[in-house]
Amino acid sequence: MGMPIVVDVRDESVDDAVLDRMFEWFRRVDATFSTYKDDSEISRLGRGELALEETDPDVRLVLERCEQLREETRGYFDAHAAGMLDPSGLVKGWSVDRAVEFLHQADLRNFAVSAGGDMRVSGRAVPELCWRVGIQHPRERREVAAVVEANDLAIATSGAYARGDHVVDPHTGRPPAGVLSVTVVGPELATADAYATAAFAMGPHAGPRWTARLRGYEAMTICADETVLTTARFPAA
Amino acid sequence: MRKAVMTFLTAAVIAMPVVDATAAVKATAKKKVVIQRFTGSSAQVDRWGTVQVAIVVRKTTTTTGTKKRVTRRITAVTVPVYPNHTSRSSYISANAVPILRSEALQAQSARIDLVSGATDLSNAFVQSLQSAILKAKRA
Asked: Is residue A98 in a domain?
């Protein structure tokens, strides 16, 4: 996937072997799912060289979830949006969710795992304090537009300001106009990330309305006219 | 139409002083309140149908001597027509419109542990800030 993954552990002690195993997991995910690697299962599946039944069970799990999310988002989250099989939009969050489970199993409680600006936080940053996650200001890059306070939460932001218009509306093939960024928070990063991508693609009118009816997930939409729309329980500090 | 929705979202208060020379001359202030409902024109919402918003405005006219001051405040917003060509989008509209909060975009400085932003390999801000925070925590 080619993005830096940052793990920030705040527990008193952490076994380096645990972190090594976690990064080994991310390397395995990259080898299996990367669309940049010709020999990854996703690339071979996309070229028709590998049958779905022959793939790793995780590949089938991810593709099934992509399909569920495509239906849930009325087609706005689509692993085929770019004209080829590319489940990266889900894989990133899903692999972070798995890493969080793994760290919990290793008895770590207070940590954050961040992949390319999307993250899961767990426990507390320091005793007595929750995590404070800044939502990047889409125009003033060195500022934050809001701060989310949380103990256990996934936070995903989708926007056009960073890498050009990399999210397109699968219904029109064009990037949406009028939205600078959408941040979605909730229990799972895979879902939050897919919802953020979908709501961003929906644009400034349908997007915020759609996020307002999500169950268990809250959203903040920053529109091009500089209004900020948040759902009722968005945990902004 | 979009304006009507945005007005609702920002809960704007419209204040407009009006000069009226024919007002009765009186030493004490006199208040007159009129409450009226206004319906916006219907507008297309993507491909999901049309939406129409109605607002209730409370107009207060305060007369002091020959001076008149008129204040208008939106006291209620309803959506009598919303996209409902399927039960699902009806559910979406009915629930979504009243529970979105709106505020103006502003920059904040605060203690933060991490930054969430749009994915970008060259997004130096997020990555360098995060690594700097990690370094600072370890120093």
From this structure: yes
- Identify whether A77 is part of a domain: yes
Report chain A residues whose CB lies below 8 A from the CB of B110. Answer: 132, 134, 144, 147, 237
For A123-178, what is each residue's pLDDT tens digit? 998 877 889 999 988 888 778 899 999 999 999 999 876 544 456 667 766 666 78
ipTM of the complex model = 0.80
CATH code, domain carrying A56? 3.10.520.10
**Residue A73 resides in a domain:** yes
Q: Which domain holds residue A124?
A: 5-230
Q: Is residue A235 included in any domain, yes or no?
A: no
Contact list, A144 vs chain B (CB under 8 Å): 107-110, 112, 115
Long-range contacts of A45-53 (CB under 8 A, 24+ apart): A45/A85, A46/A84, A46/A85, A46/A86
CA A105 to chain centre: 22
Domain count, chain A: 1
CA distance A57 to chain B (A): 27
Write the pLDDT tens digit of every residue in A3-35: 778 888 888 888 889 999 999 999 999 999 998
> Which of B105, B111, B129, B133 is the mutation pick for testing A, counting most A CBs within 10 A?
B105
- What span, in angstroms and rounded, lies between the C-alpha atoms of B21 and A131? 61
